[in-house]
Design a protein that fits this description.
The protein has 419 residues and is α+β, with helices and mostly antiparallel strands. It folds into two domains: 244 residues, BirA Bifunctional Protein, domain 2; 90 residues, Rossmann fold (3-Layer(aba) Sandwich). It contains 16 helices and 16 strands.
Amino acid sequence: MNYSIPRGTYDILPSQSHKWQYLIRRFQDLAAAYGYHEISTPIFEQSALFERSSGSSSDVVQKEMYRFLDRKGREFALRPEGTAPVVRSFIENSWDKTQGRTKLFYTGPMFRYDRPQAGRYRQFWQYGLEFFGSSHPFYDAEVIAFLWNFLSSLGLKKIHLEINSVGCPNCLKEYETALKAYYHPHLDELCGDCQNRFEVNPKRLLDCKVPSCGVIAQNAPSQLDYLDEDCRKHFEQVQHYLNLANIEFKVNPRIVRGLDYYSHTAFEVIFEGLGAQNTLAGGGRYNYLVQQMGGRATPAIGFAGGFERLLLALEEEGLALDTDLVPDVYAIAMGESAQKALMPIIFYLRNQGVKVDYDPEKTSFKAQMKAANSSHARYCLIIGEDELSSNSVILKNMETGEQQNVAMDKVSTHLLQIL
């Protein structure tokens, strides 16, 4: 029997894994600078968790969740997104009662039964951020600034930020009435999904990716015209803080996001160059979700993005990540005695984080020097009979060709200093 990888999944091979690790480290480092702490949740949860949070009418719940029954007949689902599990943990650990402002971030695989295409997989790796405990518009801007700074710090130039306000329950009813009045004459022209959304969740009509539905949506009423006074002021303040942070943005009243829990601010970072799947990351406020899921009323805001699409964008712009897989040092030993002297140096340097390569199966000097050149190592350590007799090591700079003799008991310290 031939085994093949499931459709819509992929292997992260050694030629690519360093790029993933680099992006994760960059994300973690920036999170620490903003005062966020990592949280890890299970990759499967009760199905009802996502039905309650994402909304029963969302595509995630209706079409895309991987569901299964355990041996006791309980229904679970592989997590399709990261916010609901974090909120579940937030409530279950009583942080809604015992903590004030809480800053959390996560990375990990998510699962959706979707049509595979470039940058869109059935198992995909997300990075995300969740802030709990304040409805102040400053934190909207802070979360957006985090996302913008993370992406732009990677060197991306063809990105732009779009923001919107989707209002609150107080102003949503009037807006949904206006949407239905606008769309009603076009019902027969809508796709099947949008015809269902018309009654259940009309604002999702604006988010449809079917071209014909997109044309109809162009002249639909704007949520911004139906914001109540509090929502309008909140959105104005978010824009004020983004201006203070020197972050350019465009107000796009068509942003609604794909999950039902959003309220107030919604935002996306768009990359021009990935076709229809051009949203690198997005998020928004969800002030009512914690209470909706059984916790104490707690305002919150967050975002999520996919590493797969981010890697495609970086490749599109020709941006190399930390691809420095070459060794810092290539070690050459001529003979068993030289090898015996070299081994403690090699393992000590590796334990200090220095990348050292050595091939014991190559014995001739010519073969070892050829391997050293091919490795593109910065330095070469050479020990032969002469060096053994003088208790020294030849240290060669492989870029300049300059070499020097260094005492054997000093070479490790010397290399750590110059590296």
